[in-house]
Design a protein that fits this description.
The chain is an alpha/beta fold. The chain folds into 2 domains: about 170 residues, Rossmann fold (3-Layer(aba) Sandwich), CATH 3.40.50.1970; about 200 residues, no CATH class. The protein has a 6-stranded parallel sheet with strand order 1-8-5-4-2-3, sandwiched between helices. Strand 2, helix 3 and strand 3 form a beta-alpha-beta unit. The mean pLDDT is about 95. The structure holds zinc ion (ZN).
């Protein structure tokens, strides 16, 4: 396998926004020089929160001052905050007056700096404090706006300075969460393959290879991740960075997320709490990832060479029927038009559905083998999560199996991205597929 430096160098070639990536013990001391090189003569604003200010922000602030860069700070002192719009407005104000954001923090701080820098039509620099998400290097920011978790288009940071001394010392749950966010790329990749064969989202080779070629290796040391071993955490952080760069190369989050992430979005949008606390992105994604591995386990039990394509085409609903179904499913959801809007975008007419299904029927044995080479069986993924310290049962984030089952219709419809559940709907095996996950002997047996 290529070494980390080579992989990163290759990745930066396909990255649209990120030009500098430094990773290693103590590299935060490089931040002032990098800043001066990218933003000569500009003022800096170090943006941190209650946890990341003492962990790294304070040090970065002093380093910048010592280097003669005019520097101010903005610290969000609240104990618990999420990526809500009110914070976007706050950080936007902080950048007024010509400041360049120096993000010191994990997912939320970085997403705020990313979107607000975009609003100011400028680039920014990020110093991650935990290997908790892949959003450091990704194109787009995930923010709750008008009751709906949305991904806003905005460029990735121009420079990422990942001090492994700091990142490896982050709370264990954050590193475990990042492990699950990286593992989500396993079923997400398989769903991209499905959408590719469907003809709705062709695989972009640059975006695929930059991460997927190394994904299995970078997930191979969950014990090291749990122990906070610097080498294992560096591998994890690299994987998360490559995932973000894959999104830059695709100009979309397709390479990094599909249904695995949608369970988490539902929990965000319904303000789900467990033991009084909001659950982290990665912990929620862990359950979505396991669930999708279970869905693929069920899919592999089916013989799609026997698909009765004509019958499926005859039974295929009209757009109006699908819109009506979406209205019904989403009527008590915080964003009641979400399903309607997305099914309207991703609806295919009966003739197209016939062509799509015929491709699955005609290539199933080979295509199934390819999918099996991509996705992990549920039990394997569950063992990895156990070793990494990530949740491996929905009860561990306060979700019952019944609740998880009830999320499926929403998951299928809440995004216009084509997913494996859309394939199941088209092929009239959706009920069998989903029921299998919760049936006796299924992954989440009820
Ligand atoms: Zn994620």
């Amino acid at each position: 396998m290529m070494d980390s430096k080579q992989r990163i160098a290759n990745a930066l070639k396909v990255a649209s926004d990120t030009k500098v990536f430094e990773m290693g013990g103590g590299v935060s001391s490089l931040a002032p020089e990098v800043f001066k090189g990218l933003f000569p003569g500009r003022k800096a604003k170090v943006i941190a929160d209650i946890n990341t200010w003492p962990a790294l922000g304070e040090k970065v602030f002093s380093l910048f001052q010592e280097a003669g860069i005019p520097t101010e700070k903005f610290i969000i002192w609240e104990k618990e905050f999420h990526a809500e719009w009110e914070y976007v407005e706050m950080v936007d104000k902080e950048l007024d007056g010509g400041y360049i954001a120096v993000s010191v923090g994990s997912g939320v701080i970085n997403d705020l700096c990313k979107l607000c820098s975009h609003h100011h039509n400028q680039q920014y620099l990020t110093l991650p404090t935990a290997a908790s998400v892949d959003g450091y290097s990704s194109f787009g920011a995930s923010i709750s706006y008008q009751n709906s978790k949305q991904t806003f288009s905005c460029p990735a940071p121009v420079a990422i300075i990942a001090d492994i001394d700091v990142i490896a010392a982050a709370p264990k749950e954050m590193t475990a969460a990042g492990y699950a966010d990286l593992a989500a790329k396993v079923p997400a990749g398989a769903e991209w393959m499905v959408a590719d064969l469907m003809g709705t989202a062709p695989i972009k080779p640059d975006a695929w290879h930059v991460l997927q070629d190394y994904l299995d290796d970078l997930l191979a040391n969950p014990e090291g991740v749990a122990a906070g071993d610097p080498g294992a955490v560096a591998d994890l952080f690299e994987g998360l960075t490559l995932s973000g760069i894959a999104m830059q190369a695709a100009q979309s989050s397709r390479p990094a997320s599909c249904c695995d992430h949608l369970f988490s979005h539902i929990l965000d949008m319904t303000h789900h709490r467990y033991q009084g606390k909001l659950q982290s992105h990665g912990f929620q994604v862990a359950i979505g990832t396991l669930t999708m591995c279970a869905v693929f386990d069920e899919l592999f039990k089916m013989d799609l060479t026997k698909l009765d394509v004509d019958a499926c085409v005859k039974a295929w609903p009209t757009l109006e029927q699908e819109q009506q179904r979406a209205v019904e499913i989403f009527k008590d959801f915080p964003a009641p038009t979400l399903g309607y809007d997305n099914i309207t975008k991703k609806y295919n007419d009966a003739a197209t559905v016939g062509e799509q299904l015929a491709r699955f029927r005609d290539t199933w044995p080979e295509f199934k083998e390819k999918l099996q080479g991509q996705v992990y069986p549920f039990r394997k993924m569950q063992d990895l999560f156990k070793a990494a310290g990530a949740p491996y049962d929905p009860s561990m984030i306060g979700v019952t199996r019944e609740q998880l089952r009830d999320m499926f219709p929403i998951v299928q419809l809440m995004r216009h991205r084509m997913n494996v559940l859309d394939l199941a709907k088209r092929g009239m095996f959706y009920d069998t597929l989903v029921e299998g996950v919760f049936a006796r002997g299924g992954a989440w047996e009820i």
